[in-house]
Amino acid sequence: MSNLSSDLLHDIDTISKIDVIPSILKVLCHSTGMGFSAVSRVTEDKWIACAVEDRINFGLEAGGELVIATTICNEIRDSRQPVVFNQASKHSIYQHHHTPKHYGIESYVSVPIITRAGAFSEPYVRLIPTLRL
Fold first, then answer.
1. How many angstroms separate the CA atoms of 126 and 52, rounded?
2. CA separation (Å) from 36 to 5, 55, 56, 58, 67?
3. Are 73 and 128 in contact (CB under 8 A)?
């Protein structure tokens, strides 16, 4: 985490102080059957995990980073629309998308958080439960 900006470190720290976040991530995994959920901080050039529930040994911890170009969040940042699919392998768009292939995911939910004023600007977080094949 030492290579992260002070803003990103602050966001990780802020999320870690919200006591209910670990419970929410556990409930998401339990209720959806998915093996990984996270609150992340997404910028134009970074995807940083702020809190993680990892039941599949994906290997990402708070402060861990994914290459932004390999994520669907990179596209969601521009569209501001949730992305939900249950079977990437049978989905008209996501069966050919690079992210499910790269990470081996079959099911995915990502919901952008928009401010009260309707802004989608930094800082923001995403809640992303995923299931690996």
1. 11
2. 25, 6, 7, 7, 17
3. yes
The string of pLDDT tens digits covering residues 105-121 is: 888 998 887 767 765 54
pTM for this one?
0.81
Pairing mode of beta strands 130-132, 105-112: antiparallel
Three-class secondary structure of residue 93 per DSSP: coil
Beta strand 125-127 with 105-112: parallel, antiparallel or unpaired? antiparallel
The structural domains of the chain, with segments of one domain joined by +, span 6-132
| Fold of the 6-132 domain | Beta-Lactamase (3.30.450)
Question: Each residue of 74-89: pLDDT tens digit?
Answer: 888 888 888 999 899 9
**Which residue reads 């998915």 in tokens?**
34
User: Helix or strand or coil: residue 31?
Assistant: helix
Whether 126 contacts 21, CB under 8 Å: no
